[in-house]
Amino acid sequence: MVPGVVAAAVAGAFLAPPLLANAGAEGLPDLTPAELAANVAAAESVPLSGTVVYTARLGLPEIPTALTGANPIALLGGSSTLRVWTDGEDRSRVALLGDTSEYSVVRDGPEAWTYSSTDEEVVHYALDAAGQARYAELEAELREGPSPDVAADLPTPEEAASAALDHADESSTVSMDASTTVAGRDAYQLVVSPKTQGSLVGRVVVAVDAETWTPLRVQVWSTQDAETPALELGFTDVTFATPDDAVLAFAAPADAAVRDVIIPLPDETDLAVPDAAEAPTDATGPEDAPLPEGVTVTGTGWETVVEISGIDVQALLGSDPAAMAGLASERLIGSDEAQELVGEFVPEDGEHPGSDLDLGALYGTLTSESPEGQVISSALLTVLLTPDGRVLVGAVPAETLRGMA
Question: What's the pTM value of the predicted model, to 2 decimals?
Fold first, then answer.
């Protein structure tokens, strides 16, 4: 959930209204936020390789040593180093490095692999035969580009940026900070801040490469600490050149177990856009889409709180097969195909990747007791788990969630 705040913040950083047009006195041409957003939207993906450092200062209790290392759980606190490579198209690799371990994700077109040196396991994700054929067809269509009739209806990057800025004016303000240098590259800095006073997020600063328009660093500041960002993700070195083929090609280590997961590709029916004539007359955007059963959303913008009911937390902590299967059956995300993929991680026997993780110990470490239930409090996000099976999540103080419970 915590890294999800970063993703939302990055998206929001390019969806805010312009206030200041000066980018600073570092020698770069002046840009408005709208111009910067348009440049990012219009930029083509570029090949690159580099080192990224992720630092979390969320104020969470120290995670047990057994749960850290080259494990995504380590991203909850401290600093982690990642190596990234991409050809700018459909091949990429990301490696989370530990002192003596590594967790890697590799993508090559319609295939992907994850590898954990701690578990000595490779998981290979691939499409079924029908999906492979459909993927090739879609890829060919993408390379050909839209037909002239369709292209005429698509907004330009400038139009898309302007529309996004107009919509985001309801919840955020933005300014261009002084330009800076990140990983030896000149970069513009965009600062987005919530208009509301009820969020834990104080501001988000995004540094964008002045030549390739690639985001180089994201800093998320909490209202609880004005001196140091609560989350920081940025390149310490980066090279914009195509990596060697050997880096992007995946080969399973000789001593690793390999598990195959077949993923059906959604068909035209799943991807079809509903007829506008059938949409509710009062629907104005994605926020008006119907929510899954048991999910409610309260508030707007940075003060949004999501509540999910019917969660048996204790059974989940005990990896109870029935509870795990029940969680997978809840329609919380996507299509049938997406739900099938979730099922790969919570099969009927209750065994799943990372099943050696002591969820009870992690839960006990991160939560504190309150009259309304167990609370996970951090500098940017709060989670409340109530005795009656509800989970409330938001970038708001614990008192807000407790008052809503």
Answer: 0.76
